[in-house]
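Dear support,

Our group has been running a series of protein-ligand predictions, and this particular one with zinc ion is the one our PI (initials K.S.) wants archived with full inputs and outputs. We had some confusion internally about which version of the output was final, so please treat the block below as the authoritative record. The input we submitted was:
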Amino acid sequence: MATDVLELWPYLGYVGSRLDRVSERRNQTPEFLSDTRARACLIAGETVILARRGAGPHDALFELSRAVSMGGRLSEACLLGLSDGVPHFALPLHAASAGALEGREDVFLTDLRSIAVEQLVSPEQLGELACAKAMLSWHARRTFCSNCGGRLEVGDGGWRRECPQCAAQHFPRTDPVVIMLTIDGDNCLLGRSPRFAENMWSCLAGFVEPGETFEDAARRETMEEAGIRSGAVRYLCSQPWPFPMSVMIGMHAQALSRDIVIDANELEAARWFHRDEAALLLSRTHPEGLVAPPRMAIAHHLIRAFVEGRDPPGG
Ligand SMILES: [Zn+2]
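Confirmed final output from the archive:
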């Protein structure tokens, strides 16, 4: 349950949605769209539109009619769910429509990572935006049928694409990614990808392959990227990661070897950090300016659980 995740891992981003997804009522989407209370978020590719608020968090939800007037495409609306009976939708926006909003005083344009890092909206809305962005990313990539090449239609409130030519049905997908902190006593293994911000060190991660358990994927990725063998693997928590549509499966892994051999295609460096030094990465007080990912990211919480000597939930 999202509620439990947020209580156990405060500040973890993208996990706070409280919407009832009403998956059994998605065929009622036309009625939900005519509900005068309906609200919608607006996303154009990587750009999210927020309603500016003077104090406190900004608002990611607009009245549906206002969202449409700003360029939201109603024909491609995704029903995110109900909040106290009020339907919430995600509407895609053309880049040109988003561009036309630049400079307005009542809204501003930003990206989902910035919204999470800077806590620009409530945790509940951040969770809704994560779902919205993943869904709209999937739609943007699934215009044609992978079975026959026909143009697909949108069905089930945006949760299905249907092929009128061959009757194939296509469903939104989520790609599982394991992210693990490998631990050897009082030390943990962190790496640096060339894609990271300067001085940032984080957990190793990689996509789960077909036919593989999460645990085996964690062991394989750690061996491939850093040459470290690992044994026991324990699950801590997960995080939707809508870039474009993944879920991160966070784990602690027990190291069985210590000599690091990096895969230079994946990492520019990897090294062991003592628990005390890892604490300085989290607090951003390391004497060399090294940092861990921000607290919205699951890697931060995997490192923090190790630094604080906390067992995973149920562990
Ligand atoms: Zn088809």
